[in-house]
Amino acid sequence: MKRILLLTLFVTSLVFAEHITMPAKEYISSGSVTDIVVNNSKLYTATNAGTIDIFNLKSTKLIDKIKVDKIKDFMGDNVDSKIYSVDVLDNQVLLLSQAKSGYRRVHIYKDKKLELVIAYTKNLTIAKAKFLDKDNILLGLLSSELISYNLNTKEYNWKVQVSGAKFSDFALSEKRDEVIIADESGSLKIHSTKDGKYIKTLEGQNLDNVFQVDYKNGIIATAGQDRRVVIYADKFNSAYYKLSSFLIYSVGLSPSGKRVGFSSDENNNITVFNTITKSVLGKFGGNRMTLSNILFLSENEFLVTSDDKTINLYKIK
Sign of torsion, CA 98 133 275 288? Predict the structure, then answer.
C-alpha cells in the first residue's frame, strides 16, 4: 500500500511538473554579453571583453570581430574595455565603451575602420547609445540626461534633464521619433527625439527601479526591481502588471507587441506570455547567469543573453 501511494505521488508530480523548454541553438561569445542587436542576418554582441562579436545568425558561426583598445585601471594595469551598448544602421556600427576615470567613449566602425567620435575627455557617464539616423545618435547618461549628438558637426542637437532619478534604460520607437526612459523612480518618461521635448509620463505600476524597458508596436514592457513586469498599452490608455517570485532583470517584446518574455525566477528562467490575453505561452531555461537581454527575432523565436559567454536561441512551439 505504501509503495502504491509513493508511486502515485511520483507519477502525479511528473504530470504536474512545470515544463521548461531548453535552447534550440547557442552562440559562444568572447565574454559576458551586455547588449545585442540583429541586422541583415547577423548577430552583433557587445561583451565585457572589449569586443563586438559578429555571428552568422543562422549558422551560429563567428564571422567577424571588432576590438577596442584596452584601458588602464586604477592600478595602472591594462584591462579590457567593457562595451556597454552596440547598434547598427546601414553599414555603421555604434559602440559605447568603458574609458578612463569612469567616463565613457563612443566609436563608429565603418569600412573596417574604428573612429573615435566622443572621447572620455568629454567627461560623460554615458550608459546607452543608439542611432537616431545615419547622422545622429542618442545618448542616455547615468545622470538621467538625454543628449542628441550630431556625428557630422560633433555638436549637441539638444540636451535635456529627464529626471532627478538615476537612469536605467531607454527604448526607441520603431520610427525612432520617440524615446521611453526608465529610471530608479519606477515611472517612465516619453520624449520626442526630434527636439527632446517632454511628451508624457507613465506611472503607478512599478513601485521601484525599472531595470529595463522595451517598446514594440505601441506596447511598452518593463522589468522591475519590485518583481513586476508591467505592460502599458499606451495607445489604449491601459496598463497592468504580473508579479514574479524574483527580481525581474530583463524583458523583451515580440515585433507585434503581442508576446513578451521576462526573467521570472532565481534560476534565470524566462516566462513568455500573451500581452493581450495574459496567458502564459511557456517557460524557457538553460541560462546559468543573471539575464541581460531578451531579443525577439520573430513572434516564435527569441535570443537571451546573460553574464555568461553563451547566447541562447529559443523557439516557442
Answer: negative
pTM above 0.85, yes or no: yes
The region of weakest confidence among 135-139, 231-235, 264-268 is 231-235
- How high is the pLDDT of residue 4? 52
CA–CA dist 4, 7 (Å, integer): 5
User: Quick check: is 19 in a domain?
Assistant: no
Q: Structural domain of residue 256, as residue ranges?
A: 204-317
**Structural domain tally of the chain?**
1
First to last CA, the chain: 40
Q: Angle 176-179-183 (CA atoms, 0-180°, nearest 5)?
A: 150
Contact indicator for 220, 180 with CB cutoff of 8 Å: yes
> Hey, how many other C-beta atoms are within 10 angstroms of the C-beta on 226?
18
pLDDT digits over 8-23, tens only?
444 343 333 479 999 9
Q: Assess if residue 300 is contained within a domain.
A: yes
Q: Quick check: 107 pLDDT over 60? A: yes
Query: Tell me, what CATH number does 299's domain have?
Result: 2.130.10.10
Q: Which H or E run includes 2? A: helix 2-16
